[in-house]
Amino acid sequence: MLAAVASHRLKPVIDKAFPFAEAREAYRYFQQGDVFGKVVIDGA
């Protein structure tokens, strides 16, 4: 699957990104159910 993603240059749809310090808010946002794409928690 990774080869197919790389060769076709597919990118995931990101709905919203949260910093690690807001992980609880990210989970609450995800639980609302009105999400289109991925909810990302940035740990960098």
From TrEMBL:
It holds the Pfam family ADH_zinc_N_2. It comes from the Bacteria. This is Zinc-binding dehydrogenase.
